[in-house]
Design a protein that fits this description.
The complex is a heterodimer of chains A (about 210) and B (about 375). Chain A has about 210 residues and is an alpha/beta fold. Chain A is about 30% helix and about 30% strand. Chain A has 8 helices and 11 strands. In chain A, the strands form 2 sheets. In chain A, strands 2-3-1-4-11-5 form a 6-stranded mixed β-sheet. In chain A, β2 and β3 form a beta hairpin. The radius of gyration of chain A is 19 Å and the shape is elongated. With about 375 residues, chain B is of the alpha+beta class. Among the domains of chain B are: about 190 residues, BirA Bifunctional Protein, domain 2 (2-Layer Sandwich); about 50 residues, no CATH class. In chain B, strands 1, 3, 6, 7, 8, 9, 10, 11, 12 and 13 form a 10-stranded mixed β-sheet that branches. In chain B, strands 15-14-16-17 form a 4-stranded mixed β-sheet, with helices on one face. Chain B has a 3-stranded antiparallel β-sheet with strand order 2-5-4. In chain B, β16 and β17 form a beta hairpin. The chains are: A alpha/beta (about 210), B alpha+beta (about 375). Chains A and B meet through β5 and α7 of A and α8 of B.
């Protein structure tokens, strides 16, 4: 039995279809109910539907053997996991954005509003730029408009939200996409099954 | 006695069984002083984890540390006899300040350290003891072996240093082949080198199975020496029963500043994180003792009671309920204890306590009653 943590939402649906196409289907998942755990004993698979930002935590603590998580979440949480496959789904970029007219003041630290403090710190540390982090949980785009921060560090897909708020991308520094992750202990004990699952997924992705 | 040991919670049982195992192989018990000078640990921070040290002033105003690390203490204090290796085992708690929560934490550890001439026999002995230690927790276990010098030298031979080395080691550690390939393309790393790095990140399996692939990856004297060391280890262990649980995987790369050769990481079926960790740390030994050669591992006991709970449904074998005690009651209890039973004596049947048998004591006689 392999336990897979799927992110709830559109990405989770897409990923489930990929798993189903390689023999890990669990038709119960389509039932209209509020269940969060689905199991197909015949196929030897169990799915956990969890909040996208929690997938890595479920996998790290061994509640799930493998899972699907965005690169943004993985880099932010920094948990020791295997990252076995790039599914190339949910593609976007981690960016530094600011009001169109923004000019950096080198005489003081940059105030950075973000949901991803660890990624932001690491990025600015790579060129020794002092920053002050303002941790927010959503609507990050407002921060520089109301003077709460100079810039934001956030994921940008199309840039529409930025444009509508008179912001623009100043720097793209981390490509994001959905990754297949595995618990290191689970991988040790279920290596053959996880490797074969990865190979099958890789083939399906290449055919697309 | 063995029945009693088996009935103990895992975290209590293991130190007894591991102590016996290590003593059988000639290891002496090391008892660490509770408080040691802070300066020593502060000077060797590179070798400690990123957690903080719990420090305080003693009555003379000297800054002291509360048991931050056992290996450092052993390396500093171990006495070696001429022509002999120092072999120590320990069963100690260490104390750190968690980097994440900033709370003080207690970490229960058992382990061994061998200092001196770590030749092929000593290496095989320690790997065998690591295998046996894991087997004491759960027969369904895996000991992963890796070789830091092999990976470091392969990168050095390919001219990959500094930030590029750090990034590539990160990809190998996460078996992140896709970002490794992307990074190598962006940084114009030679295709043949990229292929070698991909092989390093994905190599995994029984030691004898991966040795031919490892041989193909030998690019210098240093990688050849690492290969020879692994090959000798395979020869020494391949006839052992537990060899089937020994796996090789170069993605196990921990504490790169600390370890310099073979690295060990042990997993048991029910635990999501490693329960054993160790390796060769010659540079620390050289720095502190002036001579090289050091190999050891620690078994982490915390959390094992959670993953391996005591399966007994009973708190004791017998409960004796009495109204009035007399001199014979204690004799009766003593006789039952002598026969290896766990006996509890109460005036009334206690709530929430489960016993295999319940007895009533009346007029010098024990009568079994339904609970």
């Amino acid at each position: 039995m392999i336990t897979i943590a799927l992110p709830k939402g559109r990405l989770g649906d897409k990923v489930y279809n990929l798993f189903a196409s390689i023999g890990y289907d669990c038709s119960e998942i389509y039932d209209d109910n509020r269940k969060l755990v689905f199991e197909n004993k015949e196929n030897g698979v169990r799915y956990l539907l969890v909040k996208p930002s929690d997938v890595a935590v479920y996998v790290y603590h061994g509640a799930a053997d493998i899972g699907i998580a965005g690169k943004d979440i993985l880099d932010e949480c920094g948990l020791s996991l295997y990252e076995l496959l790039d599914l190339k789904l949910g593609k976007c970029s981690m960016c530094v954005a600011a009001p169109n007219e923004y000019r950096e003041d080198p005489s003081r630290p940059i105030r950075v509003a973000t949901k991803f403090p660890n990624i932001a710190k690491k990025h600015y540390m790579s060129f020794n730029r002092e920053i002050e982090i303002i941790k927010l949980n959503g609507s990050i785009e407002i921060a520089p408009l109301v003077g709460l921060s100079d810039v934001i560090v956030d994921i940008v897909e199309t840039g529409t939200t930025l444009k509508e708020n008179n912001l623009r991308v100043f720097e793209k520094f981390l490509p994001i996409s959905a990754r297949l992750i595995a618990n290191r202990s689970s991988y040790t004990f279920k290596k053959d099954e996880i490797d074969s699952l990865c190979d099958s997924l890789q083939k399906v992705l290449e055919e697309k | 006695m063995q029945n009693f040991i088996n009935s103990l919670p895992t975290e209590d049982r293991l130190p007894l069984e591991l102590s016996k195992l290590y003593e059988q192989f000639g290891y002496q018990k090391y008892c660490m002083s509770k408080f040691e000078e802070y300066g020593f640990y502060s000077d060797n921070r590179d070798f400690l984890s990123t957690d903080g040290i719990i420090a305080f002033n003693n009555s003379a105003g000297k800054l002291m540390a509360l048991k931050p690390d056992i290996t450092l203490s052993i390396v500093k204090n171990a006495r070696t006899l001429p022509f002999a290796n120092a072999r120590y085992y320990y069963n100690e708690n260490v104390y750190r300040i968690s980097e994440d929560t900033h709370d003080c934490k207690e970490i229960k550890q058992c382990g061994i350290e061998l200092l001196g001439n770590v030749d092929s026999h000593a290496t095989a002995e320690i790997v065998l003891l690591a295998l046996k230690s894991l087997d004491k927790i759960d027969s369904n276990f895996s000991l992963i072996i890796s070789h830091i010098a092999f990976v470091s030298s392969a990168l050095e031979d390919a001219g990959i240093i500094g930030e590029r080395r750090r990034k590539i080691l990160g990809f190998i550690k996460r078996k992140n082949r896709h970002d490794l390939v992307r990074f190598c393309e962006e940084n114009k790393v030679d295709k043949a080198i990229t292929e070698r790095l991909i092989k390093i990140s994905s190599i995994s399996g029984n030691l004898n199975e991966v040795l031919p692939t490892l041989k193909e990856l030998v690019t210098s004297d240093k990688t050849a020496a690492a290969y020879d060391e692994l090959s000798a280890l395979c020869d020494a262990l391949c006839q052992m029963d537990l060899y089937k649980n020994l796996k090789f995987d170069l993605s196990v790369l921990n504490h790169l500043d600390y370890y310099n050769g073979i690295l060990l990481q042990g997993y048991v079926k029910n635990s999501p994180s490693p329960v054993l960790s160790g390796g060769r740390y010659d540079s620390l030994a050289k720095k502190i003792r002036g001579d090289g050669g050091a190999f050891g591992f620690a078994v982490y006991l915390d959390g094992l009671n959670l993953h391996y709970p005591n399966k007994s449904k009973f708190d004791c074998d017998a409960i004796i309920i009495y109204d009035q005690s007399d001199a014979k009651l204690l004799t009766a209890v003593n006789d039952m204890c002598k026969s290896g039973q766990k006996v509890r004596v109460e005036r009334k049947m206690p709530d929430g306590v489960k016993a295999k048998k319940v007895f009533k004591y009346e007029n010098g006689n024990l009568t079994e009653v339904a609970e």
